[in-house]
Amino acid sequence: MLTAFFYVLSSCYEEHRQIWFETQFKVLVMTYRIVCGLGPGYLKECLLPYKSKCVDINLSSCNDVSYSKTIYPNLLYQKSREVIEYSSEYILMGVLHNLLQGECNPDLRLLSCSIMAPRCEEGKIVKPCRNVCETLRKNCLPAFDAIDMAWPYFLDCDRFFVDEVEGCFDPLAKLRGETEFADDAVSESPTFIRFTHHSFPQMVRELKKVASRCSHIARMYSIGRSFEGKDLFVIEFSTRPGHHELFKPEFKYIANMHGNEVVGKELLTYLAQYLCSEYILGNVRIQTLINNTRIHLLPSMNPDGYELAAEEGAGYNGWTNGRQTAQNLDLNRNFPDLTSEFYRLTRIRGARMDHLPIPPSYWWGKVAPETKAVMKWIKSIPFVLSASLHGGDLVVSYPFDYSVHPLEEKMFSPTPDEKMFRLLSKTYADAHPSISDKSEMRCGGNFVKRGGIINGAEWYSFTGGMADFNYLHTNCFEITLELGCEKFPLAEELYSLWQENREALLKLMEMVHRGIKGIVSDKFGNPIKNARISVKGIRHGVLTADDGDYWRLLPPGTYIVSAQARGYTKVLKKVTLPSKMSRAGRVDFILRPLIGKPPPIVHEHYDPLEHFDPHAQQEPREDGGQSVQPREKPWWWSYFSSLDQHKPLWLLKHQ
Ligand SMILES: [Zn+2]
């Protein structure tokens, strides 16, 4: 300020005598304070003497702009180079490249320079063009959203930028010339995915970016937290994010349940980016999939374990380090064992074999918060089909995982839906070039004769697995994908792993449309929830969702299907599913009320999931992933912690 002030004095009054200067100095300071203290409107007049002076740009961050002269004060009324260099705006400009992980670089910096070191011609500021600002804002906003940062106020397109008719200049013109070739390259490969390992915060950022870029079809939500408090983030794709839609089946992929098996975690992160980009670009297959399916991706079910494994790093491939959670629990052994109960019921004629309750004794043991969160999630959404992504071998395995004979460690133990599970598993295996490769010397070569698929219990039996739980407690069919012998491969291998799995991942999602679907209602059209859909010869029913809609995965064939609900008569239908059917056949049922008293309601076991501890969990958030809890400052805030005052609070989205 003082430097500037001396400049005013010397330029206006250089002919005056020094003595006058000294006596008048205090008066002038007061006058200046009175006039200039009134606000920006008066500032222009105050600083009139600058107007005719264009000066060299001497800011290190702006030395490569397409012009050489600037003027003080700049468009932010910063009056000297020093003031600019110590401002939070300038500091932000310097670190933005790192914060946004190289995105929008150097465009954002050049745009910021056009405000902080504005172009000067004949003593006047030439303002930058509004359309350049608007385009950049649109392209870069997802990157800001991903780190929870607000768009900087000094890049307000309406406030600091002008239209062409007002004589603006394009601050990025030079850049465009230089990157013409790069732009072309981008348009040829539209889905830009960085095939690297992502730390937990990096993964969250990528997912947030996708949710922001594709907000019309994607949403991020948390199903709860890990033992160490990391959110178990899910990204959802649907034409109505956040809502179950009538007749729209729900699909899920879960990865990184074992923290050291990381391929699935990366694949699901890439898949999210791929689905978003391809949908926007008009890929008909992806649009059809998302328009007709609600897809949920949980890339990391065990983020605490992942962190431990990542410390060891790729390549070292710690076979067990990080497999368990921070509580030392193996999540794929931590689910309730309903399979033993299933085997017991098999011997009882007419016993109900599906939607088995969780035995109360389960809750006496250690239940991981991650397991609890997933159980709650599985119960809250009527999932139809799912896969859990693992590593360590190359094969697709399907339930049951727990042997029909408790002492037999390798024993074929099929579910009543063996045919369908085989079809699902074969679909993935056949679409995967390495799993379908016939060489027995390769990773997973011992499964070649079986076509790359195996019944879980026949491979090795274990209890408390997630797939068995899905099948026996809910409507959902879940298979297990073992994606390769290396649990934590080098980053260089990730691209080919994506190439190998992409088609298979899509094909399996499309399988959710096999079989039949429909609605069960009364004669007035009121939907009946929890009606049981049974197929003759398959001892496993599915229940209708809240809106009365259901999905019954079935391989091609002819079936007798029935629907029944408490207090209503049973209705039977004969259904034929031809072998080439890409969409589920629609089979609706209208049930008539039973004459007389409905049978008494049987009370089921106490289920802690119904009485959930709200502090241990976070409900899926309706507002697109914004926490309702008091917020900590974002991680990047530390960049500005050195500033004593003038901290850029305007960058905080949630103050
Ligand atoms: Zn595993």
Automatic annotation (TrEMBL):
InterPro entries: CarboxyPept-like_regulatory, CARBOXYPEPT_ZN_1, CARBOXYPEPT_ZN_2, Frizzled_dom, Frizzled_dom_sf, M14_CPZ_CPD, Peptidase_M14, Peptidase_M14_domain. Its cofactor is Zn(2+). The keyword Transmembrane does not apply. GO terms for cellular component: extracellular space. Disulfide bonds join 133-157. It is found in: Secreted, Extracellular space, Extracellular matrix. The active site is at 482 (proton donor/acceptor). One of its GO terms (molecular function) is metallocarboxypeptidase activity. Its main location: secreted. Residues 49-171 form the FZ domain. Residues 196-512 form the Peptidase M14 domain. Belongs to the peptidase M14 family. This is Carboxypeptidase Z. It comes from Varanus komodoensis (Komodo dragon).
